[in-house]
Amino acid sequence: MNTKRNIIIIAIAALIVLLVAYSNHFRNQFHFDDFHTIVDNTYIRDLKNIPHYFTESKMFSANPDHWGMRAMVTTTLAIDYHLGGGLNPLFFQWDTFLWFVGLCVLLYFTYKALLQKSYEAPWPQYLGIIATVWFALHTVNAETLNYVIARSDVLSTFFIIVSFLIFIVWPQKRKYCYYIIPALIGVFAKETVPVLVIILFFYLLLIEAELSVADLFKLKNFKTVWNAFVKLLPITIAVAVVQLYTLSKVPSIPGITNPFGYYVLTQAYVWLHYFISFFLPMNLSADTDWTVIRNLFDERIIAGLAFVAALVIAIFRTSKNKQTRVVSLGLIWFAASLLPTSLAPFAEVTNDHRMFFAFVGLSLSVVTYLGYLVKKHQATFLANPLYKNGLIGVIVLVMLLNAYGVYQRNKVWRTEETLWYDVTVKSPLNGRGLMNYAITQMAKGNFTVANDYLERATPLMPYYSTLYINKGILKGATGQPALADENFKKAISLNPNDYEAYSFYAGYLNRAGRTPEARLMAEKAYQLNPYYTTTLQTLMSVYNQLGLWENLQQTALNTLKLLPGNKEATAYLEASKTHSYLAQPGVANTAKRDLTPQQYLDQSLSYYNTGDYQKCILACFNALRLKPDYAAAYNNIGAAYNQLKQWDKGAAACKKALALDPNNKLAAGNLNWALSHMKK
User: Fold this and answer.
1) Which residues contact 308 (CB under 8 A, 6 or more apart)?
2) What is the DSSP string of 78-126?
3) Exposed, middle or buried: residue 57 (CB in 10 Å: 0-12, 13-18, 19+)?
4) Under a CB-based contact definition with an 8 Å cutoff, are residues 429 and 289 in contact?
5) How far apart are CA 553 and CA 570, in angstroms?
6) Where are the TPR repeats (predicted)?
């Protein structure tokens, strides 16, 4: 009874410390991938979309490059948006935290159930609560809890633990396959659930069959190993089928961004880094500057391979003794959870939030092994209270130091500025970190500082299109139009399918009063991604200035589908019906400083002669807006469409020119040219 009471007291004390440690995190802002998955993702703004999250990968992100099937994550985000009445970080952060607390409760019962198979009471309860508290307060986990979209790690781990706990606590119910249901839900959170099959496999053999890892390779145990494999066929098949379904919904899986061999070897050192971070969680960075190590004889590669070898040896040795087989299982858990990100070459060699799932196993191993050592020298500890009290003091100190670390990391994650400044300090060779910090300075009007950081980032990321987008924005904001154009065009040349490059260039051109050019860029951005609201806003502004009322009406309607009730889109929709030019704050409004129809016609001819036929057409539309019966403008439109080989549009424009001026010989000639090609 005293044991139960003590466990409750420890749990309550731990919860209080946990709340204090995370007390400064609940209003932390959105960061990094949060923007395209949450802030710009209009699909989370309507709860009616929830069923579609499980069939439409585009609803996960506003960026087509990140479309994926993590429906459970998107569902919880939609609920947060609904409860918070919008993008209120408080509700998003609390939601993640509550899932985390629920996970920790489940971990205690999971750890206890595993330890009861190795230790006699009251050891399982105490070791279980210590392992749980260490995991709950671990400083590294702040990297996951503060990063809202990293909730995928929390959710997938939560459902993995539910499935694992059901499996080990109710073995007699396995034939009903209840334990499979949580695992299938977890598949819709992140692609880590297949690791559960590996963990269950070794649980059956090490804990239930009481075999060592070495025993698995003995012929006499083949039947036992085979039976374990057969027992896990239902969950293996079920998870594989659902995982294949989610992956099939992804339009395209990013190709290998790093050389496989070197990447895998580098991961050996990354594993060592993760292991050390469990005991010394220092120098954490939201975006490291680590790169693939390409020298096979680099001391980091050698140290990493030595660690992996030591890890394998430790797994084999601890599996020999019944009381330390849980240690072996925890180490296997640690290794297996890191395999997916170690065997698939990602652009980022390491990410601190990848430790979250791995530390579930490592917490179990470390605490269990320490408990084993204490029990082995139990007589010494009982004989000298100083040892016992000292051990308790060390445990409490470790927990409090981790809690302090959490509190400090929460401060770093407070805003975009604080986060990316920390990255520039911890990872000075990370060009993306330098760029993102520059963006925060641009937002504050500190253009000199922003320019310095962007220039520092350029040699580190000379082919990164997003960098040049931001350089273009900065040059435009500081009155350097030639350099702004140069950088935007550089971004487009580096990544012709980057909708953001066209969209931000369009916004800049629109603000500069270069409306026809802005239209071209915005329409290209819309073609690449019709769900990006920034592009839609620019298009509405452009169409309104050009008086393209049908285009404006359709764009406003498209915007309202994504943003129901949006005031800006509603105003533009009304303007399209009444043909009203709305005031454009911050935009050089061409509707208020028009050229004459003749000047627009001259402009179109100039564009035509330089081969810029789209701009020629736009200039003619500007002329027609001021002079609807301008036959010469229709003729130039027809000639430009003919050059673009859009013969039907060319013929239609020339016919309008001849209807207004039957004696227009140029229009007649261009019409005949178009008709002759249409007959072929």
Assistant:
1) 268, 271
2) HHHHHHHTSS-HHHHHHHHHHHHHHHHHHHHHHHHHHHTTTS-TTHHHH
3) buried
4) yes
5) 10
6) 465-498, 631-664
Contact yes or no for 123/157 (Cβ under 8 A):
no
Residues in the chain: 680
CB 7 within 8 A of CB 129: yes
For the chain, domains (ranges, CATH) are 2-30+88-409 (no CATH), 415-496 (1.25.40.10), 517-593 (1.25.40), 598-678 (1.25.40.10)
> % helix / strand / coil in the chain, to the nearest 5?
75, 0, 25
Task: Pull the structure tokens for residue 168.
Answer: 């080990």
pTM of the model: 0.84
Q: What would the two tokens of residue 640 be?
A: 């430009």
* Lookup result for tokens 């050698």: 302
Half-sphere exposure of 414 (CA within 13 A, CB side): 10
pLDDT of 141 > 60? The answer is yes
DSSP per position, 156-210: HHHHHHHHHHHHHH-GGGGGGTTTHHHHHHHHTT-TTTHHHHHHHHHIIIIIIS-
Over residues 426-460, the pLDDT tens digits come to: 999 999 999 999 999 998 889 999 999 999 999 99
What is the Cα–Cα distance from 336 to 199, expressed in whole angstroms? Answer: 8
**Do 87 and 30 touch, CB atoms closer than 8 A?**
yes
The larger pLDDT score, comparing residue 652 to residue 256, is at 652
The distance of Cα 631 from the centroid of its chain, to the nearest Å, equals: 53
Q: How far apart are CA 142 and CA 324, in angstroms?
A: 30
Residue-wise burial string across 574-611, b where 16 or more C-beta atoms lie within 10 A, e elsewhere: ebbeeeeebebeebebbbeeeeebeebbebbbebbeee
Give the per-residue pLDDT at 106.
Answer: 98
Contact criterion met (CB below 8 Å) for 504 and 485: no
**Residue 24, token pair as written in the block:** 């400064």
- Alpha helix segments (H runs only) across 495-591: 499-511, 515-528, 533-546, 549-562, 567-578
Based on C-alpha coordinates, what's the Rg of the chain?
31
Closest to 521 in 3D by CA, of 551, 491, 541, 501: 501
* Calpha distance 636→604 (Å, rounded): 7
Name the residue type at position 67: W
Element (H, E) at 323: none
